[in-house]
């Protein structure tokens, strides 16, 4: 059982991680590098004076990019281990997993891990002002966990109390509120930050969709094979 | 009674692999995405930003 979960998760995680990394290097990295130039003072932004939109050509840096591919693979393998375990738990409770439903599982994962935390802490470029990282992590993990459990009960709940409880769980972290910076001191232009957040979310949706589909494919295949 | 206990033990032992795999997953996510040790932070920096993890 453990081996079947781990095998499915590793295949799905590295497939999704590779796609996430390639999309990141093409679409997200140029925005991130632009932001770093503001962070380091190589570019500066004064809202009162018009300035040209910075060059965002795709530039590859072998060591940095290989590390991105490796860590995206690791991160999505971590997600896949949790996702496939949840699929196995659903099957134990009499729900069937198909490759098609894998897409919904993936999108639900994206909602839990990216949309819900981004509602309080949008993906930030280097040079954005932010609250203390430990405080943000302390909000991030429970938010992801509460949203995931809430989505589970929306999907598999059987009565109105399950659904109301699920909605409350998903809402709660946002009623508490994410930790915000005390002051706005970030040197990065808002246009660049918004562009980054939009692209990071877009890449996340594609990667999570692939993760759900591939994880469900390998999981159902390993179940069919018996053993 | 015996049957009930056996069923419960069966369910618990079926849950163990799931708990193990999910915990391993959370540990990997924490390591790749959240631990602030500087070598790890620098190596994973771009992915952490691009996946929307709290960074810096």
Please describe what this structure looks like.
The complex is a heterodimer of chains A (227) and B (56). Chain A is mostly helical and 227 residues long. Chain A folds into 2 domains: 158 residues, no CATH class; 50 residues. Chain A has 6 helices and no strands. In chain A, helix 1 runs antiparallel to helix 2 and helix 2 crosses helix 6. Chain A is globular. With 56 residues, chain B is an all-alpha fold. Chain B has a domain of 37 residues. The longest helix of chain B is centred in the N-terminal third of the chain and has 32 residues. The model of chain B has no long low-confidence stretch (mean pLDDT 86). Chains A and B meet through helix 1, helix 2, helix 3, helix 4 and helix 6 of A and helix 1 and helix 2 of B.
Question: Which properties best describe this structure?
Answer:
heterodimer, A: 227 residues, mainly alpha, 74% helix, 0% strand, B: 56 residues, 2 helices
Major sheet of chain B, described briefly? none
Radius of gyration of chain A equals 20 Å
From the spread of the alpha carbons, the general shape of chain B counts as elongated
- The CA-CA distance between the termini of chain A, in Å, is 9 Å
Oligomeric nature of the chains: heterodimer
Helices and strands of chain A, in order, run as HHHHHH
Structural class of chain B: mainly alpha
Number of discrete helical segments of chain B: 2
Range of helix content of chain B: over 70%
Q: Point out poorly predicted stretches of chain B.
A: none
Low-confidence stretches of chain A: none
Strand content of chain A: under 5%
Please tell me the overall pLDDT of chain B.
86
| Most residues in contact: chain pair | A-B, 51 and 32 residues
Outline of chain A: globular
The major sheet of chain A is characterized as:
none
Number of strands of chain A: 0
Average pLDDT reading of chain A = 94
Instruction: State the helical fraction of chain A.
Output: over 70%
Q: Which percent band covers the strand fraction of chain B?
A: under 5%
Structural class of chain A: mainly alpha
